[in-house]
From TrEMBL:
Naturally occurring in which organism (per UniProt): Aspergillus niger
Record-linked CDD domains: F-box_SF
Protein name as annotated: Fungal specific transcription factor domain family protein
Stored InterPro entries: F-box_dom (IPR001810)
Residue ranges of domain F-box in the record: 1-48
């Protein structure tokens, strides 16, 4: 095995997904470690209990942190279930550097000593300056993670001299297959202030009036974000058409949204408060979609909203020349159980399909079973 060419070793490691399995290759011999070090740490996939050990390993060998480009985190929490008593001597200088008050420093220290994963994660991000892709399960109220991301996003001191998140290109947030999870849109607006970000995929985003954070990073980027691909996956509810995200993008090219009636549960007197249901995409699409749009996918909409969908898309198609000169394709998909609808249901989109043909836009209706393209 020691005679295997470097190329073969790299190919083997490249086809192993879990970090804990790839790491074993570094322990075989010095040659393998030298050849495979960057390849092993290029893509790191860990769980919450591994956050602190990884940070301590990076402190011992900073090359680990600078090698990480793709970081994936699953099953972590911002709550401290079993309090511990960790030695935090090695991270105290960093805590003192990024804290903005004595109270904040004390808050960090107490959380780190107790083993709070959110606090350790916030510090871990500071050591991955070359990270280009972040894929993670999210959790509610991640105080320390939110603090680091928001300050790094707008280069707030001391992050004006720290290249944290400045190379991040791709962000993916998923909801851990928990259909009761929800996150207010404000949580993710800081990402749109990052200079290199191009693709954002978010699960369980719910718009409401109830959450406001008084910090500039949590405001829309107002047409300055470089994001070109934006997707809202499982369980979103865009009662305001996700307008703050869409209008933050300077040159959005792809937008995908799957509506659900996910709602925010009350924090108090839950048993006595009704759910707050919202309608999706109340804003007119033509008013919030950017002129650079090339491809639009509207999927998993409620069947009862078909007329509203057709009406909005007809407006978009009608002003293609003036507002959407680059738009080439619109894909429409109802819930999967409704895709085998009657011919009359599909025929309802005929005027839209014809309007698209007239201006050079492909309208794909229920594409899994029914595809209509212009000749």
């Amino acid at each position: 095995m020691n005679r295997l060419p470097d190329e073969i070793l790299l190919l083997i490691v490249d086809n192993i997904v879990l970090f804990k399995h790839k790491y074993q290759f570094l322990q075989v011999c010095r040659r393998w470690r030298s050849v495979l070090f960057k390849a092993v740490y290029d893509y790191v996939w860990i769980e919450g209990h591994q956050i602190r050990p990884l940070l301590l390993a990076i402190q011992q060998n900073p090359a680990i942190g600078s090698s990480i480009k793709y970081f994936r985190l699953h099953w972590w929490s911002c709550y401290t279930w079993d309090k511990e008593n960790h030695d935090i001597t090695s991270v105290l200088p960093l805590v003192n550097r990024i804290s903005q008050s004595e109270e904040e420093t004390k808050e960090w220290e107490e959380a780190l000593i107790e083993g709070n994963q959110d606090a350790w994660l916030g510090l871990l991000l500071l050591h991955m300056e070359n990270m280009t892709s972040l894929l993670m399960h999210y959790t509610r109220q991640p105080k320390f993670l939110r603090r680091v991301i928001s300050r790094a996003a707008i280069r707030e001191k001391p992050f004006d001299t720290m290249p944290i998140l400045q190379q991040l290109v791709d962000v993916g947030i998923d909801s851990s297959d928990d259909n009761k999870a929800w996150f207010h849109k404000t949580e993710f607006l800081p990402f749109f202030h990052l200079p290199a970000l191009r693709s954002v995929s978010l699960d369980s985003v719910v718009e409401s009036m109830g959450v406001q954070i008084d910090h500039p990073a949590f405001k829309p980027a107002k047409g300055t974000s470089p994001v070109v691909e934006l997707e809202f996956g499982a369980h979103p509810n865009g009662s305001k058409g996700m307008a703050d995200f869409i209008t933050s993008c300077a040159n959005l090219e792809k937008f995908k949204y799957q509506h659900s009636n996910q709602v925010i549960w009350g924090e108090r007197y839950m048993n006595f408060r009704p759910r707050a249901f919202y309608s999706a995409l109340l804003s007119s699409l033509k008013e919030i979609l950017p002129s650079s749009l090339k491809w639009l996918c509207l999927s998993h909409y409620e069947d009862s909203l078909r007329d509203q969908v057709i009406s909005n898309l007809l407006e978009v198609v009608a002003c293609r020349k003036e507002k959407f000169p680059y738009l080439e394709e619109v894909e429409i998909q109802s819930y999967w159980q409704n895709t085998r609808e009657s011919l009359s249901a599909k025929q309802a989109f005929t005027p839209l399909i014809q309007a698209g043909e007239d201006v050079g836009i492909d309208i794909l209706v229920f594409p899994s079973f029914y595809r209509q393209r212009r000749a």
